[in-house]
Amino acid sequence: AQSVTQPDIHITVSEGASLELRCNYSYGATPYLFWYVQSPGQGLQLLLKYFSGDTLVQGIKGFEAEFKRSQSSFNLRKPSVHWSDAAEYFCAVGAVGNTPLVFGKGTRLSVIA
Amino acid sequence: EAQVTQNPRYLITVTGKKLTVTCSQNMNHEYMSWYRQDPGLGLRQIYYSMNVEVTDKGDVPEGYKVSRKEKRNFPLILESPSPNQTSLYFCASRSRGGGNEQFFGPGTRLTVL
């Protein structure tokens, strides 16, 4: 069975600074990987996903993520954070077939002026 | 507009009073699921359904029931709610296949007194 670890519970960055949120997964084959964002009081919205091919994937809102098989990681990055990026971010891993997505426990991002 | 809807969005009830949270999707998705979100615990899957009349337990099914009589609807039933079921609940759907995007509803904030 697959699993996901998000090592950082809470991260604070300054507006305009770069951001990297960590995600490590465990799965025996090539996984499907997702990043979702949850703004305060909202549901979850898909930022980006990786299935195969280019290991650097681009998403919405200027986010990107890089799949590194050797490190079992799928870290989310943004070069310059905006105050509106303050939210909770979830990494998720899926497997072939109809097995459920497995989510990490989330990383809460705070943005300071 | 493609969406997952949940009702009610907010509910305060008392211990033991049966309640149902409805979930409906208009994307003809086969796969639907229910999650609860609690601080520090992330998203935990309660039940999921791979198609009409096919349901299965997730990680935390105790105290919950579901049914899938129609493809578009997947209600969550709490027969005898207890205070430890106070949580934020999300319904989600996706089409068949592990790599497909999962769409989330806006959430239902439930408080059981």
What is the element layout, followed by pairings?
The complex is a heterodimer of chains A (about 110) and B (about 110).
Chain A lengths: L2 E3 L4 E5 L4 E3 L2 E3 L5 E7 L5 E7 L5 E3 L5 E5 L4 E6 L8 E8 L7 E2 L3 E6 L1
Parallel strand pairs in A: 2-12
Antiparallel strand pairs in A: 1-4, 3-9, 5-6, 5-10, 7-8, 8-9, 10-11, 10-12
Chain B lengths: L3 E4 L2 E4 L5 E7 L5 E8 L3 E10 L2 E4 L7 E2 L9 E3 L8 E8 L8 E2 L3 E5 L1
Parallel strand pairs in B: 2-11
Antiparallel strand pairs in B: 1-3, 3-8, 4-5, 4-9, 5-6, 7-8, 9-10, 9-11
Q: Summarize the amount of helix of chain B as a percent range.
A: under 10%
| Structural shape of chain B | globular
**Overall number of strands of chain A:** 12
Overall pLDDT metric of chain A: 92
Distance between the termini of chain B: 36 Å
The major sheet of chain B is characterized as: 7 strands, mixed
Task: Note the gap between the termini of chain A.
Answer: 41 Å
Low-confidence stretches of chain A: none
Beta percentage of chain B is over 45%
Primary descriptors:
heterodimer; A: 113 residues; mainly beta; 6-stranded mixed sheet; 4-stranded antiparallel sheet; 0% helix; 51% strand; B: 113 residues; 7-stranded mixed sheet; globular
